[in-house]
Amino acid sequence: MTAETEVLTELRRLRARVPQLTGALAASADGLVLAQDTVDEGAEGIAALTAAALGVALRLTDATGRGGFRELLVRGEHGYVATYAAGGSAVLTLLAESRVNVGRLHLEARRSSARIGELVENALVPDESQPEKEVRPSWPTPKLPSRKPPH
Amino acid sequence: MANTEAALKEATTLIDGALGAALVDYTSGMALGTVGGGKDLDLTVAAAGNTDVVRAKVRTMEMLGIQDEIEDILITLGTQYHLIRLLRSRGANGLFLYLALDKNRANLAMARLQLRRIEADLEI
Hints:
The structure holds two protein chains of two kinds. By secondary structure, chain A is of the alpha+beta class. Chain A has helices at residues 3-17, 43-63, 102-124, and strands at 21-28, 33-37, 71-76, 79-86, 90-97. By secondary structure, chain B is an alpha+beta fold. In chain B, helix 1 runs antiparallel to helix 3 (108-121).
């Protein structure tokens, strides 16, 4: 399975576990869609907006001495938009209804974003030197944008 | 009148066999406070999971057309009791107290009474 398919599988699994999700997408830190599952509002636009919000969030956590970026939760009148760091170069953005269980959303999304981070980082490593290790995701500033466009 | 921290502390120290307690907002699934727990009982996970339990029961009652309110929910495990008590005091809508007890050390009737009293004293 390609990394892209695996990321998509992970997004679908996440949506099955949190039924109040109305869309899920994985994007690179610079705003390119890696995989998306039924984001009606336009995945490309949301990925780009996520990158912009991420830029502000990074500066905010940095300026206030809160360390690396972990997650961003925005609540509107009709629901939530949540973004979670997925490794060092990708993010997971989720759209949820307003009646979502935020506690569960966090628990499931943190697990999924760690998994997606592993998948993305493994895909960036050249194939022959790919170690079969359990990657514990670190949360560095996403400074290396992964220019790996989805085909 | 006790604040959240004090009420949870009281629940875990006064009630025999208490393993952990949490005050949870079931509109969001987030805990307002937790006391006790540990690696065997992650109270954040318990808060989110039991939110689904409470929501399911509320929905079931709606579907059954039962015009009533939930006072508490008891879940009996092999080695533990889990007590969920919905708050009904003014301004505390959408909250529940969650208490996990060691079945061997706990007195269920006593625990339920004590939790009721703690709820009555709780000031949000």
